[in-house]
Please model this.
Amino acid sequence: MRSVYIAGSRRFFNDINFFAGILKENNIEVRIPKKGLSDRSFEKEKEALFRALKLIDSCGVFYVFSKGGYIGKTVAMEIAYAYAKGREIIAMEKIEERSAQALISKIMGKEELIGYCK
Model:
């Protein structure tokens, strides 16, 4: 079984959290970052980023929750980090950002990911 880190824009946090619950119900180990606040200090933002990078280090699959093709700046950075660490990077939908697109190994919907990770 593969462990999964789900990366996605803060605007999709509720959707990501719901999907993480579905993965857990299917006995798939899942990691997601804590919900970020747009008004937190630089130090809090830095701490959150380093926590997320540690979670990425401990996963097998890096899943990009790219609803409508959107990822945001932080997710683009996380994708580059996951790629540099040799993680398998799978996107839910085709990503708009071309430089990030180049690092994606495959596009896979949520249901397909569940089967893939079991």
The first helix runs from residue 13 to 25. The radius of gyration is 13 Å. The domain at 4-117 is CATH 3.40.50.450 (Rossmann fold). Residues 55 and 82 are 10 Å apart (CA to CA).
